[in-house]
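Sequence only, no structure available. Ideas?
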Amino acid sequence: MSELTLTALRLGLLVALWVFVLAVAGVLRTDLLGTRVTARRTSRPRPAAARAPAGTDAPPEPAEPPRPRATLVVVEGSLRGTSITLGAAPVLIGRGADCTLVLDDEYASTRHVRITADPAAGGFVVEDLQSTNGTYLGRARLTTPTPFEPGTPLRIGKTVLELRR
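Reply:
I predicted one. Tokens follow.
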């Protein structure tokens, strides 16, 4: 082999080695520091039907019936004291960055549980999303979507959540 070919092979091997080292460093950084949490915008514009007509001082008529509202509070775990207001939008809980409540719990799945409003019953329903370690409502393991009553503990790994009105 010529000297030029040998030098090119050495440089290529050096570049490949550095790419590997940087990839390992990136994986270690993510593993040690966790995922990046981004702030979410919580305010939504009101629909046009709920706004008062221009030039009137009368309060707007509600466009649809009020939906159930409650607060989900973390009572045990690393996020103790954290609370989320539940409304019509479903709430996703897990370790994934796309979840509404991101848990720092090694026993939680990426997408562990979903809490949705049940307007017919005026409450909320909790559903396990085929998590590895399971979800417990009170002392029972969730296998089907189940009504979530205020005061009942919801356990996800080492994290315990409670619904409050």
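The chain has a mean pLDDT of 83.
Hope that gets you unstuck.
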